[in-house]
Specification:
Elements lengths: L2 H13 L6 H8 L2 E5 L9 H14 L3 E5 L6 H14 L4 E4 L4 H7 L8 E4 L8 E6 L1 H17 L12 E6 L4 H17 L4 E6 L6 H13 L4 E5 L4 H10 L3 E6 L10 E7 L1 H14 L7 E4 L6 E5 L6 H16 L12
Parallel strand pairs: 1-2, 1-3, 3-4, 4-5, 5-11, 6-7, 6-8, 8-9, 9-10
Antiparallel strand pairs: 10-12
Helix pairs in contact: 3-10, 6-7, 6-11, 8-9
Main location: membrane
InterPro entries: BMP_lipoprotein, Peripla_BP_I, PnrA-like, TAT_signal
Protein name: BMP family ABC transporter substrate-binding protein
Amino acid sequence: MTTSLSRRLVLSLAAAGLALSPIAASAQEEFSTVYVMSDNLGDHGFNDSAAEGFNRAKEEGAKVRLLQASPSDPQLWRQNLEAVSNAGTYNVIFTGPNMHDNLAAVAPQHPEQKYVFFDDELAQPNVLSVKYAQNEGSYLAGTLAALAASDKASFPLSSGAKKVAVVAGMDLPIIQDFIMGFKQGAESAVPGTEVQVIFIGSFNDAQKAYDLTRTAISNGADVVYNVAGPAGLGILKAAADQNKYAIGVDSNQNDLHPKNVLASMLKQIGNSIYDSIKQVKSGTAPFGTLVIYGLKNDGVGLVLNDAIVPASAKAKVDEARAGVASGSVTVASAFAAK
């Protein structure tokens, strides 16, 4: 439909009292979506995984906008969300971490606008909430970490002392979900594995993450699990500098320090975004509900660094994955219900 024809259609419908909303008019020309962020791309993690999903949709014809913002400017986050909502030109607006209060204020003011809220939940009829079973993916990370920390022969950077650590951004329920799954996986694989937990107090302070990782290693940890968003790049570097092992998070971070990063726990954010866009386009998106992505539906996973993880450990991780996916293993969660 050409622009002039589209305008004539809107005017003729308006004269008949059947004016298209800006969203409906836009949808006839091109499907349009925007991601309102509370930080930036380039984290080699959460946001870059999200961008992958948007890029897949873009390749199939969707118009995509990724609206970045300073992580230290929450006022701008709210302004950006209000601006795109007021514009009325997006078929669906995506937003995610740190945006709960903003979306709770803005979404009810725009009942015709559709939103997808990922990695969190908001009960509104025009919001589709998407969460991830990070406890399940972390169960696999804990399994691998315990195996590496107890087997010096197969993992030569390990002391064999059965000590691992989680270095996490902040003490939040979602982060506790990572920790609970990791601890359970470690204990299931190698009973008696000691797990240190250290909080940075930030998801953006890579230097502090680096320093605290060195502390964890000086306390005996042979494997450190990164649960810290952009700050986690400091965790991985510290492990490499100390010649110990690390496990990445959100995106595949194995190639950042390939001699030290054993694996990465993937939150398949890009998959969920791509799926959600397809559902919105087809009219099947279950707005007003919560969708969980876990091991069973490829919402989370563990991608191994085959160059440093032997086949024997891979087999044990695969066994753990199968147990969770089949339901024979139930992974503890920091949330009351999944």
